[in-house]
Design goal:
mainly alpha; disordered N terminus; DNA-binding; transcription regulation
Length: about 200
């Protein structure tokens, strides 16, 4: 990572040992069941039910994932990779402001797949101890690159920050979640955002 300070060898953590085959199976079943439960019931789905559906006890769940945020972080890694890939695709787009807004729209779409995710991501952005920071920080870095390019092109004001944009994006996703009878709400709010950026 650019700008990272090298760790002293005496303070470096030893590499994690690979999981045993049975532990890997339990891990994968827990993530799969959590993904289904979060999609069906939202991110506040019962962890006990997730463990039961995965065929393990709650203690096994907590050995793999010490808290809900750690489980959510594992569930959302695929989506995170897709969002990061999308940011790289948009990095050379001819219209930098449109690219930034398209990427923010992709975040809103992802957050809309799981009720409660937008709220959790908003909270994680202010809590450096949350496991969801592992999702938030790469998104922040990717978005900062798109924003910087849009600002350098003169299409986005210099006083716009990526932190504000990510909070606004999560707020739009939360508003859309609360208004399921208005499927166009997120798009309308995002278009308003685009006007405000210029």
């Amino acid at each position: 990572m650019a700008g990272a300070i090298p760790m002293d060898a005496s303070t470096a953590q030893p590499p994690a040992r690979p999981m045993r085959a049975d532990a890997r199976r339990n891990h994968d079943r827990l993530v799969g069941e959590a993904r289904r439960s979060f999609a069906e019931h939202g991110t506040d789905a019962s962890l006990e039910d997730i463990a039961r559906r995965a065929g393990v006890g709650i203690g096994t769940l907590y050995r793999h994932f010490p808290n809900r945020d750690a489980l959510m972080n594992a569930v959302f890694q695929d989506a995170l990779c897709s969002l990061l890939d999308r940011s790289r695709e948009l990095a050379a787009a001819e219209a930098p402001c449109r690219a930034l807004v398209d990427w923010l729209g992709a975040i809103i779409t992802h957050a809309g797949e799981y009720r409660g995710l937008a709220h959790s991501l908003m909270s994680a952005s202010r809590d450096e101890t949350s496991a969801l920071v592992q999702c938030h920080l790469p998104l922040r870095e990717a978005g900062a690159g798109l924003l910087r390019r849009a600002q350098e092109s003169g299409s986005v004001r210099d006083d716009v920050s990526i932190d504000d944009l990510l909070q606004l994006t999560n707020a739009i996703a939360l508003a859309a979640e609360q208004s399921p009878d208005d499927p166009e709400l997120a798009d309308r709010l995002l278009r308003l955002t685009l006007r405000g950026l210029k």
